[in-house]
Specification:
Blueprint: E1 3-11, E2 15-18, H1 19-25, H2 30-37, E3 41-43, H3 51-59, H4 65-70, E4 71-77, H5 88-96, E5 103-107, H6 113-127, E6 132-141, E7 154-164, E8 169-179, E9 185-186, E10 195-196, H7 198-220, E11 229-232, H8 237-247, H9 253-267, H10 270-273, H11 280-291, E12 300-307, E13 311-319, H12 331-336, E14 339-340, H13 343-351, E15 361-362, E16 372-378, E17 381-386
Helix pairs in contact: 1-2, 3-5, 7-8, 8-9, 9-11
Bound molecules: 3-hydroxy-3-methylglutaryl-coenzyme A.
């Protein structure tokens, strides 16, 4: 029996900032952001969206009534949690109308956690093939205005339905994991923005990729030639390119060109969104599947997941016939339809988040076109609204 990703659907903000404009405002050369970092646009998440609403907005459009009836596991992976105790998954389950017999949990290990969710869901469905698991990686990447990390912000959520006989990607049972205590990026509980040793984190990322990728080749007796494409967690798209380049000497010149061309497809949508932490690898997978005309059913895709702190995993799946049926086909158009905000508008939205304060607060949500929005806080409880109800 095959188990894997049956559907993928993405949600982010209707707003973005242009990276050339941001570069000029920060006295940087536009090419530093466009080429050196590898980002052309960055999602600007308004205060009416948080990890819960992004997750619900990502999942709702892809779920049929039959899916909802079959889902008995909801995993929300996030490092942008809205509560220190209650799982974001409980709110998401309510917004999505999931049934009461669903196991709802929140997972955390920086950007890696959605991969832990996918692998746990895979095992769950292998044991219960008549059930489905919903895994959502949802985050808002925040480093702060005028910081070196600023051009690597962004946000969004990727929802994935894991099932038997999946439409998109049948996962293999092989994977290699690496987990060690590394202080490359972290966010103490009193911080709303991440602390990061940027250059160090980028070096650790490559070390982890080398370790788990080469470990995978050795463990499974595969070579780089077996892979049609390699997809990466993309905190900024140049990061994945650097990691890919680090293993290209294992491939022939023709294979190198092919892997680089597939990578260009795999980063094309991430270039327009920025980092979304847990969902980033899976946006890259979706980007590959939506934009690469050279893929074929049966192709072996390798996925590198990295979460600071640090944990990495390399795992694989085979592309399924008719995989397009499980994809978020409208995503490129939705990204093209977003509204460009000026740098001052982006800065104002950055500062306008719900305050970490017990007082009642109201959020202007009327311009947010998404179905699920955060409207504020009353009696220290977040208020979520389904605008379609
Ligand atoms: P920086 O120090 O401002 O940038 O910060 P830089 O000076 O290193 O320049 C960046 C690149 O632009 C360099 O290329 C420059 O040469 C190039 P590289 O040497 O890296 O190939 N450059 C230019 N290129 C073309 N034309 C020009 C030009 N000028 C310069 N005119 C840094 C960069 C990424 C460190 C910073 O943005 C940062 O700290 N970001 C956050 C940390 C991060 O994303 N780390 C990635 C690995 S860790 C990870 O992936 C986990 C994470 O997602 C969190 C989680 O797990 O939850 C972050």
């Amino acid at each position: 029996m095959k188990v894997g990703i049956d559907k993928l659907h993405f949600a982010s903000s209707q707003l973005y900032v242009d990276m050339s404009e941001l570069a000029l405002a920060r006295q940087a050369e536009p090419d530093k952001y466009l080429i050196g970092i590898g980002q052309s646009q960055m999602a600007v998440v308004p205060p009416s969206q948080d990890a819960v609403t992004l997750a619900a907005n990502a999942a709702a459009p892809m779920l049929t009534e039959a899916d909802i009836a079959a889902i008995d596991l909801l995993i929300v992976a996030t490092e942008s949690g809205v509560d220190n105790s209650k799982a974001a998954a409980i709110y998401v389950a309510k917004l999505l109308g999931l049934n009461r017999r669903v196991r709802t949990i929140e997972l955390k290990e920086a950007c890696y956690a959605a991969t832990a969710g996918v692998k746990l869901a895979q095992s769950h469905v292998q044991v219960h093939p008549d059930k489905k698991a919903l895994v959502i990686g949802t985050d808002i990447a925040r480093y702060g205005l005028h910081t070196p990390g600023e051009p690597t912000q962004g946000g969004g959520a990727m929802a994935m339905l894991i099932s038997a006989e999946p439409q998109v990607l049948a996962l293999t049972d092989d994977s290699v994991v690496l987990s060690q205590d590394v202080m490359d990026f972290w966010r103490p509980i009193y911080q709303t923005t991440a602390l990061v040793d940027g250059k160090y984190s980028s070096n650790i990322y490559i070390d982890y990729f080398q370790d788990v990728f080469k470990g995978y080749l050795a463990q499974t007796s595969t070579t780089i030639a077996n892979f049609k494409a390699l997809v990466f967690h993309l905190p900024y798209t140049k990061m994945g390119l650097k990691a890919l380049r680090s293993v290209l000497p294992l491939a022939t010149p023709t294979q190198q060109q092919a892997l680089l061309a597939h990578f260009d497809c795999a980063r094309s949508l991430n270039r327009k969104v920025g980092n979304l932490y847990t969902g980033s690898l899976y946006l890259s997978l979706l980007s590959l599947l939506l934009t690469d005309a050279k893929l074929q059913p049966g192709d072996l895709i390798g996925l590198f997941s990295y979460g600071s702190g640090a944990e990495g995993e390399f795992y694989t799946g085979h592309l399924q016939p008719g995989y397009q049926r499980g994809l978020d086909l409208g995503l490129p158009q939705r990204l093209a339809n977003r509204r460009r905000v000026s740098v001052p508008e982006y800065e104002a939205l950055f500062e306008a988040q719900l305050k970490l304060d017990p007082a009642d607060q109201a959020i202007a949500f009327q311009d947010d076109p998404h179905r699920f929005v955060l409207t504020g806080q009353i009696n220290e409880q977040r208020q979520y609204l389904d605008q379609w109800a």
